[in-house]
Structure formats: C-alpha cells, structure tokens
Design brief:
1 helix; about 40% helix; about 0% strand
C-alpha cells in the first residue's frame, strides 16, 4: 500500500482552537447556571406533560 504524500496534519482532525476573548460586551453565563436552568426547564416539561 502506497503512502499518501501531503503536508496536512492528521492529528488535528478538523478541530478548531478557540481562545478567550476580552470582549466585555459578550454575555457571560456560568456553567452552574446553565445546568440549573436546564434542570428547571426539564422538570417543568415533565410536570406539564404529566398534568396534560
């Protein structure tokens, strides 16, 4: 089997690096708040599904 010649890095696999920006206009939400909001919405959907 012949090797393919190319200069691409196979290890990157299409991953993109994201760096922290110093944009003060961006909305900052803590991970705990996201989990709490998700749980509250999930419980509300479960309760509404059980009632109706």
């Amino acid at each position: 089997m012949a090797k393919k010649s190319g200069g691409r890095l196979v290890s990157s696999a299409g991953l993109v690096n994201y760096y922290d920006s110093d944009d003060h206009r961006a909305i900052h939400i803590s991970p705990i708040a996201v989990v709490v909001i998700t749980v509250v919405i999930g419980v509300a959907v479960f309760v509404l599904n059980a009632l109706f």
